[in-house]
Write a structure and sequence with these properties.
106 residues, six-stranded mixed beta sheet, 1 helix
């Protein structure tokens, strides 16, 4: 299959235009993708599409692009027990594809 689509964000949220920042790496629909649910501190819930080769840092960059807050936070998986995503180089394909990520205040 030949894929000729242009990479674009896949975001179901009222503020779709806010996610379009040059700082954010957008999901390339020609490469394997997954949808991750983000639950932010302010109660916002987002469904965001990422490539499996993107990292925890890409998730953080996405959050920074839509929320300009300078609050300290951690990210954790909603699994039981919760798993902190502390390694910024960890790939999405390394165990949290299709998961729910919760932003917690530090």
């Amino acid at each position: 299959t030949i894929c000729t689509s242009v990479p674009r964000p896949h975001l179901r949220h009222r503020r779709q235009h806010a996610a379009r920042s040059s700082k954010v790496l957008l999901a390339d629909e020609c490469s394997p993708t997954t949808t991750i649910q983000l639950r932010l501190i302010d109660g916002t819930r987002l469904l965001v599409r990422f490539n499996l080769t993107q990292t925890v840092m890409d998730v953080r960059d996405f959050i920074a692009s839509i929320k300009r807050d300078d609050i300290g936070y951690t990210l954790q998986l909603s699994s039981f027990p919760p798993t902190r995503l502390s390694d910024p180089t960890r790939l999405i394909s390394d165990g949290f594809s299709g998961s729910v990520i919760i932003q917690r205040r530090t």
